[in-house]
Every structure is written in structure tokens, then in C-alpha cells.
Amino acid sequence: MADQPTDRTRVRRIPEFQVHERAALDAILDAGQVAHVAIVDDGQPYALPMAYARDGDRLLLHGSTGSRLLRHLAAGAPACVTVTLLDGLVYSRSAFESSMHYRCAMVLGALTAVPDPLDALALLTDRLLAGRWQEVRPTTRKELAATSILQLPLDEWSVKISDEDPEDPPEDVALDIWAGSVPITTVYGDPVPAADLRDGIPVPASVQRLRARTAPTT
Question: What ranges do the domains of the chain cover?
Fold first, then answer.
């Protein structure tokens, strides 16, 4: 399914980088882990990083009920949520043409409280720490009451992807200067136990699976 951009989500700078397929939006949101959420409060713009999860046609955000940002969002303030994945550095033959490979998604709208806070918290946990929800103790009512979980419908959005080779002019291509790109990848390191962890407690399956996802192959 293709998205028809609104006037607010139409890419104006290098419009050929805009991608209209909904699958591209889902792929970026599912690959990322941190969203920057921007609001305007009393005339002052703020943009803060937040953990998130995509659940079908909605984006889930959570934080403390004492958070000014969460209270502002829960009141229906318009918001802009962006997720950017940096995939590489592009080395052109000039500094002017050098750039980055990236995938960026932007979602506009107003957030509301989720009707299913415990289920949403479980989904968020397993989205960020796959399999962890079944390994930890149950969430208490006090903890749930202190947590604000909001949802943003994926109705108005924009995706921009840059994955091209360096775009040097012909006169620069003739120069003896290396050009190309350097990919950027994310890997998970070896787990580090907490300082107060008792002896004999093994690394759980959720952490082992996470490490195995990006472990080098031989």
C-alpha cells in the first residue's frame, strides 16, 4: 500500500529520496529503537529521545506519569516523531558532495492513552528486549500506575531514504581521489552482569538470542 503525502509530509529537499510504500515505514520503525519526539510547549520547541514500539498501525511511547513531555502529549498536543537509521558515510571527491546513507521516518499526529496499558507495556518490553517479559517478575499495580503509555496512529507520515553512490560532477570524477561509502552496522557486545548479581545465575535466553543476532560468523 502506497502513502499519498499530505502537504506537511511531502519531501521538498531532494524529493526523489521520498519513499511512498507503507512497508518502508514499517521496516524503519521496526529496525529502530529510539525515536525523537518533538513538541512545542508555551512557545518553546523541545525534542526528546524516547524508546518506542510499533504495534500494527500505531506507535507506542512510554515514560513516567511525572514527565512533562508525557503529560503534554497525553493532553492532545500535536507532535512530530522521527526515527533515523544511519547506514553509512558517503565519501565524495569533495567535502561539498560528501553525505550519509540513511533511512528516516517522520510521523505527525496527536497521541492518546492506550486502552490496554499492561498489554502495551508487555509489547514494548518484548520489542526492545525480545523475550524478556516472560523472564522478569510481574509488573506491580504501583509500577503500572506510574507509567504513561501513549499511542500515535500511523496515519500521516513520511519516509526518506538515501542509499546512492557519491554524486560527483564529471570534472571531479576525473580526479585521482578515492570515492565510495563505508557501511555502519550495530552489534551487541558480551553481556556484563550487574555488580550485585549473585553467583550461579546464568545469562538468560533473551540475552543469548540478542547476542547471537549480530555475533560474527566464522
Answer: 15-213
Which uninterrupted H or E stretch holds 64? strand 58-64
Grid cell locating 205: 535466553
Over residues 97-155, the pLDDT tens digits come to 999 999 999 999 999 999 999 999 999 999 999 999 999 999 999 999 999 999 999 99
Q: How many CB atoms lie within 10 A of CB 104?
A: 19
CA nearest 81: which of 53, 109, 58, 46?
109
CA dihedral (60, 29, 182, 184) in degrees, to 10, reads 40
Let me know: does 120 contact 65? Beta carbons within 8 Å: no
Look at residues 16, 15, 19 and name the one whose alpha carbon lies nearest to residue 158: 19
In whole angstroms, give the CA distance from residue 81 to residue 68. 17
d(CA 83, CA 107): 9
User: Is the CATH number 2.30.110.10 carried by domain 15-213?
Assistant: yes
> How far is Cα 10 from Cα 25, in angstroms, rounded to an integer?
14
Q: Measure the N-to-C terminal CA separation of the chain; round to a whole number of Å.
A: 39
Question: C-alpha cell of 27?
Answer: 521496516
